[in-house]
Amino acid sequence: MATIQIVKFRLNNGVNESEFRALNERFQQEVAPNLPGLVRREATVGEDGEWLLVLRYTDMESAHKAGRSDTSDVSQKFMSFIDMSTMSATFYGVVSE
Questions:
Q1: Is residue 82 a contact partner of residue 11, using CB atoms and an 8 Å limit?
Q2: DSSP code of 12?
Q3: Does residue 66 surpass a pLDDT of 80?
């Protein structure tokens, strides 16, 4: 069953948002295409600065493995910009399309 993952977070204090946006584009181009089972990734940011990622995977198993499968420099830098105390990730099984 297809799976949607919703990830929410805020950036660490002092992070330059333009730099993070550029890093997010690198992640989108270099990392996302190599994540097993990932069909689509969308990154959004609210007016209040909260980021929301919407990721669609082919199945729940792939969705749970994806975050642990990449250890690239881009991913590590991406994660270092995030205030981990604000991060949440939730998985949903798609029931209709």
A1: yes
A2: P
A3: yes
Cβ neighbours of 11 (radius 10 Å): 18
Q: Reduce the DSSP state of residue 16 to 3 states and report it.
A: coil
Going by C-beta distance under 8 Å and a sequence separation of 6 or more, which residues neighbour residue 48? Answer: none
Residue 76, classified by CB atoms within 10 Å of its CB into exposed (0-12), middle (13-18) or buried (19+), is exposed
Question: What is the model's pLDDT at position 2?
Answer: 97
Domains and CATH numbers, the chain: 3-93 (3.30.70.100)
Rounded-to-integer distance, Cα 41 and Cα 32, Å: 7
Predicted pLDDT of residue 69: 76
